[in-house]
Design brief:
Elements: E1 6-11, H1 36-41, E2 51-56, H2 67-81, E3 88-92, H3 98-108, E4 115-118, H4 131-142, E5 152-156, E6 159-162, E7 167-168, E8 177-178, E9 185-188, E10 191-194, E11 219-223, E12 242-247, H5 255-266, E13 270-275, H6 290-293, E14 296-297, H7 303-316, H8 321-330
Parallel strand pairs: 1-2, 1-3, 3-4, 4-5, 11-12, 12-13, 13-14
Antiparallel strand pairs: 5-6, 6-9, 7-8, 9-10
Helix pairs in contact: 3-7, 7-8
The chain binds glutamic acid.
Glutamic acid is lined by residues 14-15, 31, 61-63, 94-96, 119, 121.
Length: 331
């Protein structure tokens, strides 16, 4: 019989692995320098919670991550989860793209075991750093039975978020993470309290397994603004197979951009209308006649997460636009 749950903590860098010259450096510091063992050694309160096994998979700021890093992280987490003696996984991660990696894991892992992605806004060396508490809370969440079957979770600032919804919404404050429909729950004094569960399909119920993914199709994002030039469509990478158009308001497309986007669609590019507002839904056949133009809409997903979902959907349906559209309403 086990004394405590077995949790694997995988380090990838970020501010949680950062160090400033002085404790007053809350926003200016060196990222990705502390190993996962050094980070944990500074939080002795974690030891009684679980048997912690550590791995240093990467040591880089998450702004540098590409699709290769997503695949590498996903495959390693999947391998670790297959070990019957492992009860859950924690991934320490830079906060810049934490929501993208977490969403990718949420859609591609095939396990009900808790997977918690955690970072911090201030390095462990800073005054009032959130690193220790966030990691301590992440372990509390990973060992709790209520966390099973909820997909990938992001723990920050005493809140538990579903990977589907969470977004980094502030560049420096501790309360940086928000989910449009609210967090799933809190962590209070090391005890998770859930108030709701993810309703869209994830992990066991998706059509993708990380073990079978070896490459991801290229999807670009174009961000709309008042004077956006029609040449922007030509600047999309020639090997891109999909384009998330982060339009103004309800996924609006300036009149001068419509013709080049339609031409790109005829050439085989999947065009998905999203919104740069960060909240709300994009209505199909609302601002644009999507049926006529063969365009897609994101439902409510943010552009950076729509990119993850479109890459996965295209990996199983490279050409079938109705199946791609269905994925946005299902996940
Ligand atoms: N470079 C960091 C990153 O990996 C900055 C943000 C952070 O970790 O808080 O995303």
């Amino acid at each position: 019989m086990r004394d405590k749950p077995n949790i694997v903590v995988i380090g990838t860098g970020g501010t949680i692995a950062g160090r400033g010259e002085s404790a007053a450096n809350t926003s200016a510091y060196e990222c990705s320098v502390l190993t996962i063992d050094e980070i944990l050694a500074a939080i002795p309160e974690t030891a009684p919670l679980a048997n912690l096994r550590t791995e240093q998979l990467l040591q880089i700021g998450s702004e540098n991550f590409d699709n290769g890093h997503l695949l590498k992280i996903g495959k390693r987490v999947s391998e670790v989860l297959k070990d019957d003696s492992v009860d859950g996984v924690i991934l320490t991660h830079g906060t810049d793209t934490i929501e993208e990696t977490a969403y990718f894991l949420h859609l591609t892992l095939k396990s009900p075991k808790p997977v918690v992605v955690v970072g911090s806004m201030r390095p462990p060396s800073a005054m009032s750093s959130d690193a220790s508490l966030n990691l301590y809370d992440a372990i509390s969440v990973a060992i709790h039975p209520d966390s099973r079957g909820k997909g990938t979770l992001v723990v920050a600032n005493e809140e538990i978020h579903t990977a589907r919804d969470v977004m980094k919404t502030n560049s420096f404050k501790l309360e940086a993470f928000r989910s449009p429909y609210g967090a799933l729950g809190y962590v209070v004094e090391g005890q998770p309290r859930y108030y709701r569960a993810p309703s869209r399909d994830h992990t066991m119920k998706t059509e993708w397994s990380i073990d079978e993914l070896h490459a991801l199709p290229k999807v670009d994002i174009v961000y709309a603004y008042g004077a956006l030039d029609e040449d922007v469509v030509g600047s999309v990478a020639s090997d891109a197979r999909g384009l998330i158009f982060a339009g103004t308001g309800n996924g609006n497309v300036a009149e001068r951009i419509v013709a080049p986007l339609r031409a790109a669609t005829r050439d085989g590019l999947h065009v998905v209308r999203a919104s740069r507002t960060g909240n709300g839904v994009v209505i199909r056949n609302g601002a644009q006649p999507d049926d006529d133009y063969d365009w897609l809409v994101v439902d409510d997903q943010a552009p950076q997460k729509a990119r993850i979902l479109l890459m996965l959907a295209m990996s199983s349906h490279p050409h079938e636009r109705s199946a791609l559209q269905a994925a946005f309403y299902r996940y």
